[in-house]
């Protein structure tokens, strides 16, 4: 298949706006994703010319939804130019691809598909020779979808803390949001597989890929952002550390799952460092997101 590249092949970008230059704080991980650290295009910037036959992912470096799509593209080894979009000053041309103006949007041969839970299925359909994200067998497939729905409590838990901090709500409200995130971890622990690191067995799949970006952000939030922005609540989250998150005492299976997920090439290829995520989150919570933080 012409768009497939081996995971070890680091494909050069031919597009003017795209760059492979990784900030020095990130170890280079070879992958099919080109320009993951490229600057974000904003209103007034021209759309980079698409390279014929080459996939594009419209993204934002720190977006967990966009990371879902990036993980799947890396797993499949699809040569993809990442086009980062400034979400507070979106280029006009972006709305023609995605009227909601959200990221991610996947585009190939002039066909754009958005929504992070739908893109993986589309990729499975158009790249039948690449490793599948969703299983073909109907029951297993349905169960994976159900699992993603159930695990969305982690997304909600993370977003709840984010909103509470951004809304400058009282310590009591932030505490309540932390409580919900902890309850989400408890629920997810019950859903994790026994004796298998991944949610649906020994190999990672849809549920793992759709959930990882939010667990990683919850980690950053609880260990690096919240204690700094709300020192009055530092004691409420001091049980959490980046190493061994969320903690094998209460969440044995989830902790083993995260450790295994962090080793996957497709996850390593799509991630931003915790340091950069924390720095970005602070600017976002303050109301002035610095999308290009650490790039230049
Ligand atoms: N339901 C969408 C949500 C995507 C989303 O909200 N992305 C955020 C960035 S993390 C975004 O594009 N925000 C800009 C906006 O909503 O205008 C999906 O799953 O793809």
Automatic annotation (TrEMBL):
Belongs to the GST superfamily. Omega family. One of its GO terms (biological process) is glutathione metabolic process. Pfam families: GST_N_3 (PF13417). Residues 53-131 form the GST N-terminal domain. It catalyses: RX + glutathione = an S-substituted glutathione + a halide anion + H(+); methylarsonate + 2 glutathione + H(+) = methylarsonous acid + glutathione disulfide + H2O; L-dehydroascorbate + 2 glutathione = glutathione disulfide + L-ascorbate. One of its GO terms (cellular component) is cytoplasm. This is Glutathione S-transferase omega. Coiled coil: none annotated. Residues 137-285 form the GST C-terminal domain. It comes from Pristionchus fissidentatus. GO terms for molecular function: glutathione dehydrogenase (ascorbate) activity; glutathione transferase activity; methylarsonate reductase activity. Keywords: Oxidoreductase, Transferase. The keyword Transmembrane does not apply. Its EC number is 1.20.4.2, 1.8.5.1, 2.5.1.18. The keyword Protein biosynthesis does not apply. Exhibits glutathione-dependent thiol transferase activity. Has high dehydroascorbate reductase activity and may contribute to the recycling of ascorbic acid. Participates in the biotransformation of inorganic arsenic and reduces monomethylarsonic acid (MMA). PROSITE patterns: GST_CTER, GST_NTER.
